[in-house]
Amino acid sequence: MLETARKLLVEEGADSVTALRISEETGIARTTIYRHWPEREDLLRDTLTLEEAEPPIELTGDLRRDLIVILTSMGEQIGKPRGARMMSVSLDRSGLRGEAGGPHREMMKRRLSPLRRAIETGIDSGELPVGLDVDGAIANLAGPSFFQAVFFRQKPSTVLVEEVVDSFLATHSN
């Protein structure tokens, strides 16, 4: 059911994710769908948390290269129509029922975990300062790529990614 909900979300938008539409697409009774998701927002939340796995990124120990590879991969994923649609709906629905970001927060946590790991490895290796605000560093590094992908619906260019990484490292490297 959730795969069908995700397909509807990506192809037609959040308004199409209803028990009626899922029932029409799958042949599953609406009562069964309502039994699992009494509220439409619960169905949307679970649909947003069902995210395709991104390819794993192995860190090489070259901080600049690792950051560029991670940001490029993130830009490619969110720059795809499916990724952009999921992100837009997630942003639109964040904070439903007082969840302080709910599925959006979880999606972003998963998506940003390789970047967090690279920054923390840079701190551990002494390439980045011990007192570095990791969340702030993630925002500085990922922000331009997400902005490009979500608002302009364009994959961030290699030049943009390299400039962001080089600027970050020039400011924060030991």
What's the shape? elongated
Mean pLDDT: 84
Strand content: under 5%
CATH superfamily of the largest domain: Tetracycline Repressor, domain 2
Number of strands: 0
Radius of gyration: 19 Å
Identify low-pLDDT runs: none
Strand count, sense and barrel status of the largest sheet are: none
Q: Helicity level, as a percent range?
A: over 70%
Q: What is the CATH class name of the largest domain?
A: Mainly Alpha
Structural class: mainly alpha
Give me the number of helical elements: 9
CATH-derived architecture of the largest domain: Orthogonal Bundle
List keywords for this structure.
2 domains; mainly alpha; 71% helix; Tetracycline Repressor, domain 2; Arc Repressor Mutant, subunit A; elongated; 174 residues
Could you explain how this protein is built, in words?
This protein is mostly helical. It folds into 2 domains: 2-47, Arc Repressor Mutant, subunit A (Orthogonal Bundle); 63-172, Tetracycline Repressor, domain 2. The chain is 71% helix and 0% strand. It contains 9 helices and no strands. The protein has helices at 2-12, 19-26, 30-36, 40-49, 63-79, 81-93, 102-125, 134-152, 158-172.
Topology:
Blueprint: H1 2-12, H2 19-26, H3 30-36, H4 40-49, H5 63-79, H6 81-93, H7 102-125, H8 134-152, H9 158-172
How would you summarize this macromolecular structure in one to three sentences?
The protein has nine helices and no strands.
